[in-house]
Amino acid sequence: MARVRILNPAAAPAELDAVALSREILAEARTIEEPEQCTRLDALAGQLHAIAPERIEGDDARIAFWLNLYNALMLHCLCLEPLRGSLLWHLRLFDRIAYRVGEHEFPLNLIENGILRRNRRAPLRLRRPLRAGDPRLAATPSTPDPRVHFALNCAAASCPPIAVYDSRKLDSQLELATAAYLRNETVVEGKRVRLPRLMRIYHRDFGSRDEQLAFAARYVPALAAIAAERRRVRIRYGRFDWTVAPRPSR
Fold first, then answer.
1. pLDDT value for 3
2. DSSP letter at 111?
3. pLDDT-above-90 percentage for the chain
4. Could you give the CA distance from residue 224 to residue 215 in angstroms, rounded to a whole number?
5. Cβ atoms 86, 243 nearer than 8 A
6. What one-character DSSP code corresponds to residue 186?
7. By the 8 A CB rule, do 46 and 8 touch?
8. Strands 104-107 and 187-189, bridge-based pairing
9. Which ranges of 15-152 would DSSP assign to H, the alpha helix?
10. Using a CB cutoff of 8 Å and minimum separation of 24, what contacts does 51-59 make?
11. What is the pLDDT of residue 124?
């Protein structure tokens, strides 16, 4: 098994609740550009050792916490080890870079597929991220929310922008992120509809093509009109650009 690199090896007492801490970590991660600037981020992330993620109450709090940590962990990694070319050349990274939260390691792949997607197989993977009985399963939300795919940023050019998520307004934030991404990436030309490739990659979360169309129609007015008229359309998917994107601006 590949060795996992923990980016927050030094533990520190928690000074904030879990979601507030995740917000601070992501806000700090968005400001760093060089490894020498990581001192405060390292200290904040060290507080995750004192967080018990299974004790975070409510799906909104859990989803906000893990969204913020995933995006922060990706930015933290990129600052320490900048990537070039296609992200597809660096897929091992998603299992080898992690934060320690409480007593356990949480790599990028596990946060996305093991936690936020409630232990569904990652695309092109044969196994679920977590085995039955793994204590990290206790940290998952009760129900997967497909809108998280429009909030997670894996550093590819076609990823959605990064935002800091707040459990108190998570639903409205996810609605805005989903609407913005779908309206930007969906193309309607007569009876032809091109949906974002993300919906094809994660079809297990979005359902059949008809279900995907109905989901997108909630956010794209042109699709809503098609759905209202019950017109049959031909669905295709756009290209996903896996090129490593420049670090997002502050």
1. 87
2. I
3. 89
4. 10
5. yes
6. -
7. yes
8. unpaired
9. 18-29, 39-46, 59-80, 93-96, 108-109
10. 51/14, 51/18, 51/21, 51/101, 51/102, 52/102, 53/18, 53/101, 53/102, 53/136, 53/138, 53/139, 54/102, 54/135, 54/138, 54/139, 56/18, 56/19, 56/139, 58/167, 59/141, 59/142, 59/143, 59/145
11. 84
CA dist list (Å): 146 to 19, 63, 120, 238 = 20, 11, 12, 18
Amino acid at 65: F
What single DSSP character describes residue 240? P
Dist CA 11 CA 43 (whole Å): 8
Question: DSSP assignment, residue 20?
Answer: H
Name the pLDDT band for 230 (thresholds 50, 70, 90).
confident
Using CA of residue 82, residue 85, residue 90, residue 91, what is the dihedral sign? positive
Q: Looking at residue 191, what is its pLDDT?
A: 87
- Token pair 């098609």 is found at 226
| Spatial CA neighbour of 73 closest among 124, 117, 107, 102 | 107
Eight-state DSSP code of residue 112 = I
Alpha-carbon gap, residue 203 to 3, rounded angstroms: 31
Query: What is the separation, in whole angstroms, between the first and last Cα of the chain?
Result: 36
- Please enumerate in sequence order all residues whose Cβ is within 8 A of that of 126, keeping only pairs 6 or more positions apart, or say none: none
Q: What's the mean pLDDT in 201-225? A: 94
**For strand 5-6 and strand 97-101, is the pairing parallel, antiparallel, or unpaired?**
parallel
Mean pLDDT of 27-36: 94
Whose tokens are 């309206």? That residue is 183
Residue that is written with structure tokens 């204590």 in the block: 135
Q: Residue 104 pLDDT > 90, yes or no?
A: yes
